[in-house]
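Reply to dn_fold:

You asked what the input looked like. This is it:
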Amino acid sequence: MAIPEFIVQLRAKIGHDPLWLPGVTGVIFDRTERPEHVLLVERADNGRWALITGILEPGENPAEGLVREAEEETGVRVQLGPLFDVDTAGPITFPNEDVCSFLNITFRGVAVSGEARVNDDESTRVAWFPLDGLPGTLTPRHRRLIEAARSFTGEGASYASPPSEDRA
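and this is what came back:
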């Protein structure tokens, strides 16, 4: 997995101590009206299928960061719709013993161009999945986000904390 250079520099100073990082997630559909498929990546680090995710660069706008991540990871250019979910995950201890917690900002989006493909070293496969045929390795959190994006009306949402095992 590519670790952003600013994190490499921080880790040189603080070692494996916990970091609080801003992250973005995208629920990217194949069309705006009545979406039929969602774009997923199979992560190289753990082999699980996942939504498009990434860490924002210092000072980066969350929407711009997600558009960048989607194109970097999948070759697909996206148009973002509403921000519909904000949550936290962590602390997570990575195989190299780094500890991070994330503030996740999640957008709904739609593909506008490009062919879905593995476009970097962060994933082993990229594919469109039918909404009624999601892969078994998708986390409960990502399943919840897909369903929330499908049903989001644009009106204010209430927050209910998911169970702790659902926060990865």
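The helical segments are 5-14, 62-74, 140-151.
Hope that clears it up.
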